[in-house]
C-alpha cells in the first residue's frame, strides 16, 4: 500500500497544532496529563512523518517501522493521561461513588498501560530485528498483538468502571434525591445544582455555579474513551490478520478507524482540558494515597473526627458536610438521614451539633434498705457544638 501523500501531510499539520496546544496548556498545571498527551502528540507526528516518507518508496523499512511503532503505541500514553482523571473526579464528587479508593484506579490502569507499552515495544523491536536479519516477523507480531490485547482488555474494565461512576453521579443521585424507586427520563431534568448536596462539599465551588469546561468534561472524556477503544480494537484486528491482511493494505480503514478516532479523542481532551475543568491554575486536587475512611489504629478513645475533619470540609452545605466526613461505608445511609435537612443555598453561617453518646451509670444507692432512686441505668447524650 502506498500511503496517501496529501492526507498524511494534513495529519502532520493537525497533530503539530494539537501538540502545540498541549504544550501551551502545561500552564494549567496538570503535569501528568500534559506529559502523557505531549508524548502522544510527538509519537503521532513521527508516525505520520514515517507514512509520508513511505509514499516515495514503500520498500524502505525505516519509515515503515517508524509509522507502525509510533502510531500503534501512541494511544497508550493517551489512556495513561485519561485514567488519572477518573481518580480526580472521584475526589471532586466523593469516593463513595467509586468501586475502589480513587488512587487505586490510577495504580491499576496506569500499571496496565506500562506493561502493555513494554510488550508492544518488545514486539516492535523483535519484528524490526527479524526484518533486518531477513527473517520472519511472526514472533514479533504475536508479541505486538499480545500487548494490544492487554490494552483492549484493560480499557474494557476501565469503561465498565467509568460508566458505573457516571451512573452513580448522574442517575442514582437523582433517584435518591427524588425519592423514587426506578429511573425515568424526567429525572434528567433535575438541575445538577439541586442534587449537589449529595456530592463531596469540599469541591462544591468547582461544581456550582455550573461552568462549561467542568459541566461537559465527563462527556468529552466519554467521547475520548470510546473513540480510542474503537481505534485499539481496529489495530488489534489489523495485526491479528497479519502484515498482508485486508485491513493493513487498505488505507481507508486506517483513516477512519485510527486517524479520525485518535484526532477526535485528542481534540475532545484539548478543548475540555482537565486544567480548565478542575481550575488547575488556582486549585489543587490531591489524590489520597490511601482510603480516607479506613479504620484508625489509634486508641479507641479517639473519635474519627480527631483526624478526619478538615477545615475546608466545613462548608455551607448543611448536614451533607457531616455525611461526607463520617464517610466510608455509611455515606449512602447518611445521605438520607436527618443530617441533610438544610438547604445549602439558604444558610451561610451554620452551627453544627454532633450527638455523642456516652455511658452513664445512673443507679444510685443511699446505703440503706430504701429503694434505690428511680433513675435507670442507660445512656445519656449531650451535644458537642462546634462552629464553622
TrEMBL record:
<feature type="transmembrane region" description="Helical">
    <location>
        <begin position="104"/>
        <end position="123"/>
    </location>
</feature>
<feature type="transmembrane region" description="Helical">
    <location>
        <begin position="31"/>
        <end position="49"/>
    </location>
</feature>
<feature type="transmembrane region" description="Helical">
    <location>
        <begin position="64"/>
        <end position="84"/>
    </location>
</feature>
<feature type="transmembrane region" description="Helical">
    <location>
        <begin position="216"/>
        <end position="237"/>
    </location>
</feature>
<dbReference type="InterPro" id="IPR007568">
    <property type="entry name" value="RTA1"/>
</dbReference>
<keyword id="KW-1133">Transmembrane helix</keyword>
<feature type="compositionally biased region" description="Basic and acidic residues">
    <location>
        <begin position="299"/>
        <end position="310"/>
    </location>
</feature>
<keyword id="KW-0812">Transmembrane</keyword>
<keyword id="KW-0456">Lyase</keyword>
<dbReference type="GO" id="GO:0006869">
    <property type="term" value="P:lipid transport"/>
</dbReference>
<dbReference type="Pfam" id="PF04479">
    <property type="entry name" value="RTA1"/>
</dbReference>
<dbReference type="GO" id="GO:0005886">
    <property type="term" value="C:plasma membrane"/>
</dbReference>
<feature type="transmembrane region" description="Helical">
    <location>
        <begin position="143"/>
        <end position="167"/>
    </location>
</feature>
<keyword id="KW-0813">Transport</keyword>
<comment type="function">
    <text>Catalyzes the ATP-dependent translocation of sphingoid long-chain bases (LCBs) from the cytoplasmic site toward the extracytoplasmic side of the membrane (flip-flop). Involved in the establishment of the functional lipid asymmetry of the plasma membrane. Regulates intracellular levels of LCBs, sphingolipid precursors that are growth inhibitory at increased levels.</text>
</comment>
<feature type="transmembrane region" description="Helical">
    <location>
        <begin position="252"/>
        <end position="272"/>
    </location>
</feature>
<feature type="transmembrane region" description="Helical">
    <location>
        <begin position="6"/>
        <end position="24"/>
    </location>
</feature>
<feature type="region of interest" description="Disordered">
    <location>
        <begin position="291"/>
        <end position="388"/>
    </location>
</feature>
<keyword id="KW-1003">Cell membrane</keyword>
<protein>
    <recommendedName>
        <fullName>Sphingoid long-chain base transporter RSB1</fullName>
    </recommendedName>
</protein>
<feature type="compositionally biased region" description="Polar residues">
    <location>
        <begin position="362"/>
        <end position="379"/>
    </location>
</feature>
<keyword id="KW-0445">Lipid transport</keyword>
<dbReference type="GO" id="GO:0016829">
    <property type="term" value="F:lyase activity"/>
</dbReference>
<comment type="similarity">
    <text>Belongs to the lipid-translocating exporter (LTE) (TC 9.A.26.1) family.</text>
</comment>
<dbReference type="GO" id="GO:0000324">
    <property type="term" value="C:fungal-type vacuole"/>
</dbReference>
<keyword id="KW-0472">Membrane</keyword>
Amino acid at each position: 500500500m502506498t500511503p496517501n501523500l496529501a492526507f498524511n501531510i494534513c495529519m502532520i499539520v493537525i497533530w503539530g497544532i494539537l501538540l502545540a496546544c498541549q504544550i501551551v496548556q502545561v500552564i494549567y498545571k496538570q503535569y501528568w496529563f500534559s506529559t502523557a498527551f505531549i508524548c502522544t502528540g510527538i509519537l503521532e507526528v513521527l508516525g505520520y512523518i514515517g507514512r509520508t516518507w513511505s509514499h516515495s518508496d514503500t520498500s524502505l523499512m525505516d519509515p515503515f517501522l517508524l509509522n507502525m511503532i509510533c502510531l500503534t503505541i501512541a494511544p497508550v500514553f493517551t489512556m495513561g493521561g485519561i485514567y488519572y482523571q477518573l481518580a480526580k473526579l472521584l475526589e471532586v464528587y466523593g469516593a463513595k461513588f467509586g468501586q475502589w479508593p480513587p488512587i487505586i484506579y490510577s495504580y491499576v490502569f496506569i500499571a496496565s498501560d506500562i506493561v502493555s507499552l513494554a510488550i508492544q515495544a518488545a514486539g516492535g523491536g523483535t519484528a524490526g530485528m527479524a526484518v533486518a536479519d531477513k527473517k520472519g516477523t511472526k514472533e514479533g507480531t504475536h508479541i505486538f498483538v499480545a500487548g494490544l490485547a492487554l490494552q483492549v482488555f484493560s480499557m474494557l474494565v476501565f469503561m465498565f468502571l467509568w460508566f458505573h461512576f457516571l451512573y452513580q453521579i448522574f442517575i442514582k443521585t437523582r433517584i435518591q434525591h427524588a425519592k423514587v424507586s426506578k429511573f425515568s427520563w424526567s429525572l434528567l431534568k433535575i438541575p445538577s445544582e439541586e442534587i449537589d448536596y449529595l456530592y463531596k462539599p469540599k469541591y462544591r465551588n468547582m461544581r456550582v455555579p455550573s461552568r462549561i469546561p467542568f459541566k461537559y468534561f465527563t462527556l468529552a472524556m466519554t467521547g475520548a474513551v470510546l473513540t480510542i477503544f474503537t481505534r485499539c480494537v481496529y489495530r488489534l484486528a489489523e495485526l491479528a490478520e497479519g502484515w498482508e491482511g485486508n485491513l493493513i493494505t487498505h488505507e481507508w480503514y486506517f483513516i477512519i478507524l485510527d486517524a479520525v478516532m485518535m484526532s477526535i479523542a485528542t481534540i475532545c481532551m484539548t478543548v475540555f482540558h482537565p486544567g480548565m475543568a478542575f481550575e488547575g491554575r488556582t486549585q489543587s486536587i490531591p489524590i489520597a494515597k490511601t482510603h480516607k475512611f479506613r479504620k484508625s489504629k489509634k486508641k479507641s478513645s479517639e473519635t474519627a473526627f480527631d483526624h478526619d475533619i478538615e477545615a475546608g470540609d466545613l462548608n455551607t452545605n448543611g448536614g451533607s458536610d457531616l455525611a461526607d466526613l463520617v464517610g466510608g461505608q455509611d455515606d449512602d445511609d447518611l445521605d438520607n438521614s436527618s443530617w441533610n435537612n438544610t438547604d445549602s443555598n439558604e444558610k451561610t453561617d451554620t452551627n453544627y451539633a454532633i450527638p455523642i453518646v456516652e455511658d452513664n451509670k445512673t443507679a444510685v444507692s443511699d446505703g440503706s434498705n430504701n429503694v434505690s432512686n428511680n433513675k435507670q441505668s442507660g445512656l445519656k447524650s449531650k451535644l458537642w457544638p462546634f462552629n464553622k
